[in-house]
Amino acid sequence: MNGDPVNWWHGAVGYEVYVRSFADSDGDGIGDLRGIRDRLPYLAGLGVDLVWVTPFYPSPQADHGYDVSDYLGVEPTYGSVDDATALIERAHELGLRVVFDLVPNHSSSQHPWFLDALIGRDAEHRDFYVWRDPAPDGGPPNNWVSNFGGPAWTLDERSGQYYMHLFLPEQPDLNWANDRVRTAFADIIDTWFARGVDGIRIDVAHALVKDEQFRDNPLLVEVAASSAPGDRFKAFDHVHDQDQEGVLDIYREWNRIAAKHDAMLLGEVYLLQTERLRRYVADGDGLHLAFAFATLHTTWDVDEIRTTLGGLVEAGGDDFAWPLGSHDDPRAATRFGGGEVGARRARAYLTLLCGLPGVPFLYQGDELGLDDGDLADDSAQDPIAVRNPGAAGRDPVRTPMLWEAVEGFGFTTGTPWLPFGANRRPEQAAAAQQGVPGSPLERTRDLLRARRELPALRKGAGSQWLADTGPVIALRRHPEDTSAADVVTALHVADGTGATGPASFRLPAPGRLVYASDDGVEVDGTTLRLPPDTAVFVELTS
Questions:
Q1: Which residue ranges form the domains of the chain, and what is each CATH number?
Q2: At what angle do helices 339-354 and 302-315 cross, to 10 degrees?
Q3: Which of 214, 212, 220 is nearest to 237 (CA)?
Q4: Catalytic residue numbers, as ranges
Q5: Count of beta carbons in the 10 Å neighbourhood of residue 168
Q6: Are the CB atoms for 269 and 310 separated by under 8 Å?
Q7: Most buried of 34, 251, 265, 393, CB within 10 angstroms?
């Protein structure tokens, strides 16, 4: 913990809304801002504190909104600026904070800035983007590659220069070495904060600044040109196209703007090395929170989970956000085995994340126990899958939300933009789980209620890991208020050991069971008996 005064986001629980797939209010099959606003009471009742909404700005939708053509407007499919402010106002009435997505690494190729830049080398906004002359052989300026496949450069034949794009050619990278770009975005975030938004989630927060010399990235391993985009990207050590020193100067400026509005900066810093991630939040004058994406890459292995989370908590503590899932990664229930087994493990893992200092995040549908949607190959919408035949896309995690056990699942009265998935069932819908004891939805509500009611988990003064070995991971949290009790979060990871019975764990003091992710838990004095793939909160009574 950094010892700084506690802000409104400390101790909060976040929830990601993927706008296209959350709730459709007008029957066109695409989620929208009014749909989100109408469902905010559900989120308040679930027990979350802040809602992160993915991009809804005007966009050609080459990457479903992450290609922005106007940073201050709203895509008509999603509504209007009035709908955005109405969403914020309704959220505040319900005690919820709202975080909007900002995409500063790149714009749409249809943004007026880029359209102007294409006029020629002397265009007013030419230097808003990254342009380089061809290599001596006429090819791309260096060996940088796109996250979505192919080189990170596209030739503009009219001017004879290449422009850079870490993602699609329709997403040209902005030039953050240009002070005019910095000024433009300072005005953008100040405007949204003035409109009432409580924070911004910064897309690709680690990649805004590039190497001034545009040097080649070292190649780590040879891969075929036909390899999946992700494998091709991972084949390089990205020492020159991301995580450059100057990026923190941008966030220091934004931090000062946010302070005027009591707003929060949340970074999508997709760096799995703990120390590299830590520097974005270390001094308190840059990002307020950074996602610790290593939580999305652990397998159901006790040592891997213990080592990964242990290092992160020690390094970041209150400054990290802990995602259970996201619109870019397989759902936790799928990662951990799928079906009932995966859902049980995902709920237990969420319990552990809720016991850590920092901000746990659910992705829409996690509370329903959903795994990835089972989609036909010809239904692909994600540009990764559409542009790279045979590549796995992100569509299975973006299927529409299941609200009611009816046709259209209460998401839409029309045809959904993406199928629900052949594995979706009426009994998985939120309405079908509502009020059913032991359902994933009700267990998640109980979890978040317990976390909210335990001072040690909302506003802690420190933490201590209790188990270095064995099948149980346990963390003791100390409350800032010394009159409140310590809390132990414990998880039994039955990872390939064949364990079918409970694991016994010695508590540091007698305790009472406050929450269990599944049935069968026993607390007898200082002895905790945990069934496999189950997690608990235990409040120590002495």
A1: 14-106+177-448 (3.20.20.80), 112-164 (3.90.400.10), 460-540 (2.60.40.1180)
A2: 30
A3: 220
A4: 203, 268
A5: 23
A6: no
A7: 265
Residue 64: how many other CB atoms lie within 10 Å: 21
Per-residue model confidence (pLDDT) at position 527: 97
In this structure, is the dihedral angle defined by the CA atoms of residues 368, 374, 380 and 384, taken in order, positive or negative?
Answer: positive
pLDDT score for 461: 77
Judge whether 131 and 161 are in contact, CB under 8 Å. yes
Amino acid at 512: R
Distance (Å, whole) CA 385 – CA 317: 36
Stretch 55-61: mean pLDDT: 98
Do 70 and 80 contact (CB within 8 A), yes or no? Answer: no
Starting at the earlier edge strand, list the strands of the sheet with 472-479: 460-465, 472-479, 487-492, 534-540, 511-516
**Tokens encoding 142:** 């260096």
Q: Taking 80 as the threshold, does the pLDDT of residue 44 lie above it?
A: yes
What does the pLDDT look like over 474-529, one tens digit per residue?
A: 999 999 888 899 999 999 998 765 667 899 999 999 999 999 999 999 999 999 99
Say what the alpha-carbon torsion angle 50, 52, 57, 63 is, to the nearest 10 degrees.
180
Question: With the C-alpha atoms ordered 512, 516, 519, 522, is the resulting torsion angle positive or negative?
Answer: negative
